[in-house]
Amino acid sequence: MREIKVTNNESGQRIDRFLKKYLNKANNSFIYKMLRKKNIKLNNKKALPETMLKIDDMIQIYFTDETIEKFRENKSYKGEIINFQVVYEDKNILVVNKPQGINTQPDAIGKSSLIGEILTYLNYNNNENLTFTPAVCNRLDKNTSGLVIAAKNYDTLKQANRAIRERKIKKYYLTVVHGELNESIIIERYLIKNKNTNKVQILSSNIKGSKKIITKIEPLKKNNKYTMLEVQLITGRTHQIRAQLAEMGYPLIGEKKYTNKNKINDNSGMKYQFLHAYKLRLDGFEKDLEYLNGKTIRCDIPNKHKQFLKEMFKY
């Protein structure tokens, strides 16, 4: 028999969902059968699948250790070279500066990813954990650099995801676009994604399958060729900044996917889009995480971007 004490990482979820992660090689019918037959109990009593776990609950699994391990897949990953910079860290949260050219999540062919690097940095070993794996709370495109939040425990992940969803965590980007943009504006449009082309389209009205987007744009520096912008994402949708600015006639320098090459001669020297998530303002956290509210986190921009700004705008 194995007894498991519920911690903050496991509380607040149904017992069947916990068991599906803990016994991750067992099928659903087996787990429900074991609960029904009381081969798995909660606080030494029969538990229904929908019973919610609380901190300090005790789960009893009446299997041999050999049987338990047969139903547990120990996920392993090879340690990855750490390319990111740590910008902020405490016992609950890690904020890193993701370089350009790295996927936030693993791709289909298993190349290096930011989350793999984070797990390496945190010395994560799933043999020593029950069901929670540190996870990122926001994602950036492969060739967008900047701040990414990672949660070290379930409560932080849950609260950060809710704060992002409720637009309480404010996200700011630096970019440079073709053309002169003179005024601060807030744009409200609709976005729809084409899964076949992995591109999005910006629409002026809502249609089936589209999502509302809100983008705040603030010009910082300009010359007769380019404008440097601070962009605040009020909503956070796929390619929102890249597609929105291109639709307005101000494509990002280095942008390939949304730039009309017949109209724009991009000789900026940028291989990929100039887009850097440089600032976060945290809010919306509760209880033990309230200390994060009001915290502003910034990071450096890549050297090649810094050099471009210096040459173009004396920035």
Description:
The protein has 315 residues and is an alpha+beta fold. It folds into three domains: 2-70, Roll (Structural Genomics Hypothetical 15.5 Kd Protein In mrcA-pckA Intergenic Region, Chain A), CATH 3.10.290.10; 85-165, Pseudouridine synthase (2-Layer Sandwich), CATH 3.30.2350.10; 171-278, Pseudouridine synthase (2-Layer Sandwich). Helix content is 20%, strand content 28%. The chain has seven helices and 15 strands. The strands form two sheets. Strands 5, 6, 7, 8, 9, 10, 11, 12, 13, 14 and 15 form an eleven-stranded mixed β-sheet that branches. Strands 1-4-2-3 form a four-stranded antiparallel β-sheet.
CATH class of the largest domain: Alpha Beta
Order of helices and strands: EHHEEEHEEHEEHEEEEEHEEH
Percent helix range: 10-25%
CA radius of gyration: 23 Å
Secondary structure: number of strands: 15
Give start-end ranges of low-pLDDT stretches: none
Q: What's the overall geometry?
A: elongated
Binned strand content: 25-35%
